[in-house]
Amino acid sequence: MPTLGPTELIIIGLIVILLFGAKKLPDTARALGQSLRLFKKETKKLNEDDEDSTVVQAKAETVPPPPAQIPPTVPAAANPATPSVEDRLRTLEEENAKLRAAQADKQN
Questions:
Q1: Rounded to an integer, what distance in angstroms lies between the CA atom of residue 91 and that of residue 105?
Q2: 101: which residues sit within 8 A by CB, 6+ positions away?
Q3: Alpha-carbon distance 77 to 37, whole Å?
Q4: Within the chain, what is the greatest distance between any pair of CA atoms?
Q5: Are 11 and 19 in contact (CB under 8 A)?
Q6: Phi and psi at residue 58, in whole multiples of 5°?
Q7: CA 12/CA 35 separation, integer angstroms
Q8: Which residue has the higher pLDDT, 16 or 34?
Q9: Are the C-beta atoms of residues 62 and 54 closer than 8 Å to each other?
Q10: Rounded to whole angstroms, how far apart are CA atoms 87 and 89?
Q11: DSSP letter string over 50-69?
């Protein structure tokens, strides 16, 4: 791949000055620098979060809970306090109808 010589760099600089104007060039460079700093900071946070999550996962895998402390699970059908999916859907539809009626009353 060919390298950029001084002539090419001068031409590129002149094109940049023509595109952005001499007055806006410092502001553009400042904005570019801030964007790069923000990008670097965010990627650093992502890397730290990835390292933290792998440490947490490793700790969680090394300490399994004892089987005596796990509560027995009760299926939803056997537990009468838990409404079925149909009951929850019916309740949501009724609430939706009430809200629509209230909204229609407000508009009238």
A1: 21
A2: none
A3: 56
A4: 82
A5: no
A6: -65, -40
A7: 22
A8: 34
A9: no
A10: 5
A11: HHHHHHHHHHHHHSPPPGGG
**Encoded tokens for 22:** 């001499």
> pLDDT by residue (tens digit) across 42-60?
988 888 877 766 655 555 5
pLDDT per position as a tens digit, 23-38: 887 888 888 899 999 9
Token digits for 54?
A: 């792998």
Ramachandran angles phi, psi of 53, nearest 5°: -70, -35
- Name the token pair of 103: 């909204």
Q: At 82, phi and psi to the nearest 5?
A: -90, 120
Is residue 25 packed enough to be buried (19+ CB in 10 Å), middle (13-18) or exposed (0-12)? middle
What pLDDT does 38 receive?
Answer: 92
- pTM for this predicted structure: 0.34
